[in-house]
Amino acid sequence: MSACNINTDKSIPSKWTIWKDRLNLTFNQGGPGFCHFAITNRCDAQCKFCNFAAGKLKPQEFRSVSRADALLSIDILYDSGIRYIEFVGGEPLLHKDILAFVSYAHRKGMSPMLCTHGGRLTEDLIRCLKEAGLNSIVISIDAPAVEIHEKNRGIKDLCRKVQAANVQLKKYKISSTASVTISKLISDYDKLPDFLKSMGFSQMTFSYPMQYLGSGYLGFSSSDLVHYTSEQLMTVFDKIKTLKNRIFIVNNKVSLSEMQRFLLKMPQMFPCLGGYRYFLLDWNLDIYRCHFWEDPICKIHEFGPQRFIRDHCNRCMLDCYRDASVLQHIAVSLTDTYQLFKTQQFSEAFKKLFTKNNLLCLKAVAEQLRWITKV
């Protein structure tokens, strides 16, 4: 086996230190924050519903964050209360310094994750990712059929590679989740659980179809593959709820119902925490409140808690923000309650804590506990 090029100069905080830190964030900052770090816009897949697809960008348009800028960014994110960081692209495994980024985040006390198409996951790389501190990985799957998935991705033998990777991920105790974009490539959702299990997955998450993103992130497309009417999506969400009996699905039922209310243009019960607890940082070092928002908050070197935005936005239905906001609603309520107690506003504090939304949040957290404890 080849040696892993990982910097181990910095010691890893103890579990007690990490939990004490996250408890402090829960009472003072709405809980630990999460950032999607898009480290490159390069990709070697050819997905029809994504503008990162190989061939859509010219070589002179390729961008990747430098090692120095990425490590400084991780420092700033940590100092701002971010404790979960997901390295995305493009294809993040095309970045030569991915191991260094994972290791640096892990050694600061963050929980690093990775989102990939899986075609580059060899046993050596998986071992190195584990040594770097990776505990969770998300692998994109487009359809419950080998030929359809590989045709859309444009990567030969991809399913076999992902299947082999899942064997190694299990060996090295890295949690593996299939990420399935809702698209017309899926003609029969009932086939998904068995197909994913045959690929070595025991859990999955659905990405909601996006035809527009205002930020510089290119994970969207105007393709008919992701064009749905509200009525069609309502039916898909109902189907997803029934699939929960056959495979563990990360999208919680409370959030799925919230998205159905969104489609019906009904008032939203859970405001999105994008800009407050969830963020996007891209290869240009622009930090956004989310993938959907047009204007960045600022450059990363200007970022900090003073830049947080909490305005109860519900413009979109981006799953990675809306689903997560339901789960973190109770932590934000605890922060609000604690701040009210400190100013002796006891009546308002109890009103803030004992709400229907907090009960629904606890229900969603209980449903997703298996996922939460692995990231």
Salient structural properties:
ten-stranded mixed beta sheet, 13 helices, single chain, 375 residues, alpha/beta, TIM Barrel
Task: Give a quick precis of the structure.
This protein has 13 helices and 10 strands. By secondary structure, the protein is of the alpha/beta class.
Give the biggest sheet.
10 strands, mixed
- Unreliable stretches, pLDDT < 50, 5 or more residues? none
CATH arch. level architecture: Alpha-Beta Barrel
Radius of gyration, rounded? 20 Å
Q: State the CATH superfamily name.
A: Aldolase class I
For this structure, the CATH topology is TIM Barrel
- Helix percentage: 40-55%
The CATH first-level class comes to Alpha Beta
What is the string of SSEs from the N terminus onward? HEHEHEHEHHEHEHEHEEEHHHH
Instruction: Give the overall average pLDDT.
Output: 95
Q: How many beta-strand runs? A: 10
β-sheet strand percentage: 5-15%
Envelope shape: globular
